[in-house]
Design goal:
Length: 483
């Protein structure tokens, strides 16, 4: 069987782009035609009987019917049910991811493994990645834990020596959100007018997004971790689920409250993209879930929330209630990525979908297809690294991931996509006017991450006549003068 790592076919797509897509939910996504050498590849999906893994297996089967999908898990009954839905080009294998021999046996004759058997928090070893390296199998995980992601990155040299491509944090968020951030930064650098200065990730999911108890466990475990953010290049630690902001996610989602969480894309994008100020926030609905999450960080000791066995007990306690509320709240999901530059330029990307349980699989499948098409170099990479997803392959990945979205825009100013139009007041300008721009630029405080503000006065010289519009920035609480 031809190994995936040796099938490196570069995509011939444009290097620069601005994505603007508002796609209707597609019941039958377009079939992807892979290169001949990888068209019949075998994909092992660990956690394939769970919500995220099952969604990934389904998306891969729809996008590439010629792929052989191996669903791996511990429950044979669930596995048989999943295989019956996927069709004849699939099978189930029972795998214990904590057992190296079991893993290596499952990976034998497999071209690529998708590790979706979370949660990843408080996991001490990268057993799946190690087994993938030993068996020379390409690798993708949907990790959303900083420590696990950095541990995976430490295997870069071993993966390089084995000549296998590997991507960590290759899901929806982190994952697609990282690629969105990389494209915003690339576009800003290409313009060459101002340096990327502040990058902020905002996420919203209604309830658990229909993604099941694993997502609930992940959320609880993250509440036990101090939030790592960056302010002007300085690493700071903050209280989890604090620093609330009310963010406009655009049509279909509108304004939602979001709170600080410790997510791996903060560190990776700070290091890889070179943006000095980076943070990530998350919020859910109904509103009382946010109150409950904030209360847990105050009432329960961090040690309790970092204990996987105790968190699993909490999940079992809350799961019936969460499922009941999920039926009412729905499972809409949205990501908003904001980039601000030193010249005052502010651009965003928004990705919104009606069903997280569907789009999380589509997003992960987009990374799988990118690796199969040769867009990933040997080694272990984050999605925003050019060796992880080649710059010229990002457009295709984002378009594939965005199938079925209700709103997907890239590289637009906030006022063009937010649901609450800004108040605009035109003021006359002299032919050669020096215009004072009073900008409230936010500075990170040690208490809540983004609450202190400092008034800065910048002089801008304009030689042309015309009008200036005062645009009141909602998300940052700023006032900016734009032409």
């Amino acid at each position: 069987m031809t190994l995936m790592a040796r099938a490196m076919f570069r995509l011939s797509t444009t290097n620069s782009f601005t994505v603007t897509a508002r796609a209707k939910e597609a019941k039958h996504p377009d079939v992807v035609h892979l290169p001949d050498k990888t068209r019949n590849s075998t994909i092992l999906v660990l956690g394939g009987t769970g919500r995220v893994g099952g969604s990934t297996a389904t998306a891969l089967s729809n996008l590439c019917p010629d792929l052989r999908i191996v669903v791996a898990g511990r429950n044979r009954e669930k596995g048989a049910s999943m295989v019956s839905r996927l069709g004849k080009n699939s099978e189930f294998v029972e795998v214990d991811i904590d057992n190296a021999k079991s893993l290596e046996a499952a990976l034998r004759d497999v071209d690529l493994v998708v590790h979706a058997a979370g949660p990843f928090q408080q996991t001490e070893k990268c057993t799946v990645l190690e087994a993938a390296i030993e068996t020379k199998t390409a690798y993708i995980d949907v990790c959303d834990d900083t420590n696990y992601a950095m541990r995976a990155k430490s295997f870069k040299d071993r993966a390089l020596a084995a000549n296998i491509p590997a991507i960590t944090t290759g899901g929806i968020y982190p994952g697609v959100s990282n690629v969105m951030a990389a494209e915003l930064v690339r576009a800003a650098n290409a313009e060459g007018k101002g340096m990327p200065e502040r990058l902020r990730f905002y996420y919203y999911t209604a309830g658990t997004g229909g993604a099941g108890p694993t997502i609930l466990a992940t959320s609880f475990l993250l509440l036990g971790e101090e939030v790592v953010a960056y302010n002007r290049g300085e690493k700071i630690k903050l209280k989890p689920y604090s620093g609330m902001l009310n963010i406009d996610f655009g049509k279909g989602i509108r304004k939602r409250d979001v709170y600080l969480l410790n997510l791996p894309e903060v560190r990776s994008c700070h290091d890889v993209l070179g943006v000095p100020t980076v943070s990530a926030r998350f919020g859910t609905a109904p509103f009382f879930w946010n109150w409950g999450m904030a209360a847990m960080t105050s009432l329960l000791p961090p040690e309790y929330l970092r204990d996987r066995s105790k968190v699993q007990q909490l999940v079992q306690l809350f799961d019936p209630l969460v499922r009941a509320v999920d039926g009412i709240a729905g499972e809409r999901v949205s990501m908003r990525v904001d980039l601000e530059c030193t010249d005052g330029r502010h651009t965003i990307g928004i990705f919104s979908h009606r069903r997280l349980s569907v789009c999380v699989g589509t997003a992960t499948a987009a990374f799988v297809l990118a690796v199969l098409e040769g867009s990933t170099q040997p080694g272990v990479w984050f999605p925003e690294e050019p060796e992880g997803i080649a710059v010229e392959a990002r457009e295709v990945l984002l378009k594939r991931a965005a199938q079925g979205t209700i709103n997907f825009v890239m590289n637009k100013p906030p006022w063009m996509v937010e649901t609450d139009p800004k108040e605009v007041e035109k003021i006359p300008t002299l032919s050669k006017a020096f215009v004072w721009k009073d900008c409230m630029s936010q500075m990170t405080s040690s208490e809540d991450g983004m609450e202190k503000v400092k008034l800065q006065k910048n002089v801008e010289k304009r030689s042309q006549t015309g009008h200036y519009d005062w645009i009141w920035g909602l998300a940052s609480g700023t006032c900016k003068l734009q032409c």
